[in-house]
Amino acid sequence: MFTSHLKYGTLCRAADIKSHCYLRIMLLIRSFSFQVILAFCWVYIRKYQSRQESEVVSTITAICALAVALITSALLPVDIFLVSYMKYSNGTYKEWAANNETRGQIEDTVLYGYYTLFLIILFCVFLWIPFVYFYYEEKDDDNVNKCSQVKNSLKYTIGFVVVCSALLLIGAFVPLEAPPNQNATQWEKAQYFFKELGSSRGFVALSFSISSLTLVGMLAVITYTAYGMSVLPLNLIKGTRSIAYERLETTEDIDEVEQQIEKLRSKCEDGRPLSSRDRRKLQELESKLQVLRRRDRHLEIAEKNCCTKVGSVLRPLKILLGIFFILVALLFVVSLFISNLDKALHSTGINSGFIILGTNLTNPVNELLLALQPVFPLDYLLITVITMYFVFTSMAGIRNIGIWFFWIRLYKIRPRRTRPQALLFLCMILLLIVLHTSFMIYSLAPQYVMYGSQKYLVQVSNMPSTRDVQGNSTGFSSRTCDAAAPEDQCTMTRSYLFLHKFWFFSTTYYFGNWAFIGVFFIGFVVSCCKGKKSVIEGEVEADDSDMSDDEYLH
């Protein structure tokens, strides 16, 4: 007996050492990821910002906002890891996590992490980014001094602060639960309300504000992420047009336009003035000729560029990557469709936010994550890759579509040509997309995002472990945690609690997933019908100035 206890204690110590090694590995990965995120944000913003219009405050703001977006997206894998780390693979709590108080401290730490990042997001979206945006807009007026710039920027920013305050107030006062005694007097109901307001309404107010922003993020995900998931792999597969053919085509267009210009100018050789129609046409042809010559100049530089030659050599790799990305996109869309179909068939209904108490239909992404649990840290790496995939496809969608206000195009995202205002818009959109990304990943793998790799013990009969007083065999079996598990046996991720605090937001997210699937297939069809892109796609536009063109070439 002593020997068996000794072996058990040795195994437990070995398991604890292994668990602590896992925790240290995760902490090292997160520390390294933080440095990589900051470096990536700096390189990304510097790549796209206009050298001619670059400005220190807007550059720092864009880099910090993009870093906050990426760090927030990286918090979900940490949240899942920590709730999974509390338990052994057999469903029992580890010694240090057996106490409810210890588990509560860990959960509070994660919750404070979400609080901090979400408050920073609110600060960026409603105060910092709007102020810098309007400050830069006021800077375009040469007659305005610094004090007037700050005053006017604050005046416009107050509107955003008012909206944020309204959301926080609505979140604080919105009734989540009715008073327990419906026959109580108005004074008793007021007492109950103020008691609830003082207990956890700060969490509710923040959750309501973040959920409201997540609705806007849902629209951005439907618009940009869905299209980015379809256009990114297809562009890799199709590649770009031949530079030699493009130069030949451009040269022919230049000759044709020059002939048309000479033909129009010949009309006024005898001193007769051109008609207004001919003058307008001549002006259009001269502008077109200027764009064509700039295009030919860019093509000539691209033809001599080493990156273009390397890209031609890596063409087979790009095709393989495109095929891989399109398979991943289809896997995500199929998983999202199955998850939504499961909610439609087996959820508790629209009035509860389509909450489902278990996975009734096999979800490929959820099953893949659960299958990778035994091999640390493959499941956490996969959930991190999924999160980053959504962020980068969103970036690809924004680059291809640009920033629009309904049918009006506001800004274009182009390398070394993007205005500071456009970069600020880009970062704000990414902040909103990241907020909705957590719900998208929950839709892809609801069971895993809710509980991670946790298991719990269930008492079963007919097992050869012990016998009860009636002589029946009883024992314990471990099961994967789901919504039907006992509350004290499984710990929910803090992300899930933030996402499902209000049923009406969850209902809207559910219908948003259907819209996402529809837009993805529409974008896929449109991308398939489009031809190959030019190797200088987006570099030459009719509304570009000669100064910005010279800046790009040098």
Largest sheet: 2 strands, antiparallel
Shape: globular
Number of helices: 16
Helical content stands at: over 70%
**Rg estimate, integer Å:** 29 Å
Q: Please write the string of helix (H) and strand (E) elements.
A: HHHHHHHHHHHEEHHEEHHH
Family: Belongs to the LIMR family. LMBRD1 subfamily.
GO cellular component, one term: lysosomal membrane
Membrane topology: Multi-pass membrane protein
Coiled coil: 247-302
Please supply descriptive tags for the structure shown above:
16 helices, mainly alpha, two-stranded antiparallel ribbon, single chain, 71% helix, two-stranded antiparallel sheet, 554 residues
Give a brief description.
The protein has 554 residues and is mainly α.
